[in-house]
Amino acid sequence: MLYQNLIILVLVFCFPPTIFAENLECSQFSNCEGCAGQIDNSMKCRWCFDGNGTCVPSMYMCDPKYSVVHRVNCPLNIQEASSGFNETLNREVILYYIHAANRVASTSPVGAPMSCLLNLRDNFTLIREVEVNETMDSWSLGYIILVNHDLKHIVAGFRSTNHWRQLLMQYFVFMLNWLEPFPLGGKIVGYYLNSYNTILNSGFDVFINQVATKYPNYDFISCGHSLGGSLATVFSLHLARMYPDRNVDLYSWSGPRAGDETFVELLNQHVRKHYRVVRDGDLIPDMPLRVSEILPQAIHNGIEIFYPSHMAIGSYKVCDQAESQFCMKGSWWKSPFAHIYIFDGDFMNYNLDYCDYPK
Prior knowledge:
This protein has helices at residues 2-14, 17-26, 32-35, 78-83, 87-102, 112-117, 164-176, 190-201, 204-214, 227-242, 261-270, 336-340; strands spanning 39-40, 43-44, 46-48, 54-56, 67-68, 124-134, 139-148, 153-158, 179-181, 187-189, 219-225, 248-253, 273-279, 303-307, 317-318, 341-342, 345-346. The chain has 359 residues and is an alpha/beta fold. A hairpin with a 5-residue loop joins strand 9 and strand 10 (187-189).
């Protein structure tokens, strides 16, 4: 009897009764979407897709590589996820949109954005080039609005980081894990909220509405690289909520995480396609760092298109999770060149001249 009581005491001390209850409660869920993020007695269930797939209540019961805490990160059907990605569109069209957006700056010569767009084979109209002062870092933000008549879409392209002050301010915000409530729902990184409000105050909605009214049958594309990729993510939701009857597609290249799980759920509901292009060895898409599975934090959205370091045509992998140990984390080595050179194009955004990217 004494030995039995000792055994019971050891079990209760090492494995509190709540654990057994949570395990039973979590185990009732039979799929990732039902399991991930459910709360049982203050602990989060997580879907473990190592093997047959089970729902467990503790991070110690599943290898982190196979653990899903947020239901927006549940594994996708690869065939469905890859069916909408158009590599040619990214290499031959989106590339020039982003090059043009990166030249909306006082440090670039007049006509620099147009010099990039002239590489397009399509009939287009450049509507606006807007540079506006950013209050948080005393620098500026830039974006373009254009219309592609052949592909029948309206483009909002956002400039990447082009000054050390912007870089340092974003890093500071990332390290603080600073999230702010987003007017459309969820929370986004504090720097991006400030940038969102700054761009809206520049007349963004008025400019977009003028074009949308003139071309009522055109859909939207939101795109950008690095900082521009994260702003494109935020504004893709903005455009989708403004024009619920039109399709909005997002192409974010090397963009950091933008918002929390609720924000990502809204993107999933309202944005038709959202693709993130990531090159192996690029550290920036892993910002802000995910230091905890419990604390509120920004997470990635959409479908990740992961390229090996050479980024050869057709060499990409369509990842089945937005956050994955098998894709974005990539190789152990990291290099700034992996962030700067995309599809053999130089995206080092500093005092950019006219675009001489080959046709």
